[in-house]
Write a structure and sequence with these properties.
This protein is α+β, with helices and mostly antiparallel strands. It is built from 3 helices and 7 strands; from the N terminus they run βααββββββα. The longest helix is centred in the last third of the chain and has 21 residues, at 110-130.
C-alpha cells in the first residue's frame, strides 16, 4: 500500500478552511456541485466531482480547526476503491492568518496512488484559489 501526501498553504484562517472541509456548502465551493457532510464521528461524507464521479465515506475524527479524518472511496468502486476503503487525514496549522493544510491519504494500492495524488493536487489548488483574498 502507498500513501499520498500533500501540503498547501492557504491564505485564510483555520476556521474558514475547516468549514470548507466539513460542510456541504464549503465542499461545493472546491470539489464539485453536490456534497453531503454530517461532521460528527460516523457521519456521512460524500461529494460529486464536476465530471459526475462521486466519493463516499464517513467522518472518523474531528478536532475543530485542527484535524479532520475520514474514510474515502468511490461510489462506483473505480480504481478498486469502494466507499470507505481508504483513509484521509487532514491537519491544519494556522500562522499569521494563513493555514497550512497537510493531507495524507492512506491505504491506496501502488497503481492508484498517482491519479489520487494528481487529483488532490488539483483540488487543493482549487481550494487555495477559492479562499485567496479577493476570490469570489
Amino acid at each position: 500500500m502507498t500513501l499520498v501526501e500533500r501540503v498547501v498553504t492557504i491564505a485564510a484562517p483555520a476556521p474558514v478552511v475547516w468549514r470548507h472541509l466539513t460542510t456541504a456548502a464549503g465542499l461545493r465551493r472546491w470539489v464539485g456541485p453536490d456534497a453531503v457532510a454530517d461532521a460528527v464521528p460516523g457521519g456521512a461524507l460524500r461529494w460529486t466531482h464536476p465530471d459526475g464521479s462521486t466519493v463516499a465515506g464517513r467522518f472518523v475524527e474531528l478536532v475543530p480547526y485542527r484535524r479532520v479524518v475520514f474514510t474515502y472511496g468511490w461510489q462506483d468502486g473505480r480504481f478498486g476503491v469502494p466507499p470507505g476503503a481508504t483513509t484521509v487525514e487532514i491537519d491544519l496549522s494556522e500562522h499569521d492568518g494563513a493555514t497550512t493544510l497537510r493531507l495524507v491519504h492512506r491505504g491506496l494500492a501502488d497503481g492508484i496512488a498517482r491519479p489520487h495524488d494528481a487529483g488532490w493536487a488539483h483540488f487543493l489548488g482549487v481550494l487555495a484559489d477559492r479562499l485567496a483574498p479577493g476570490a469570489s
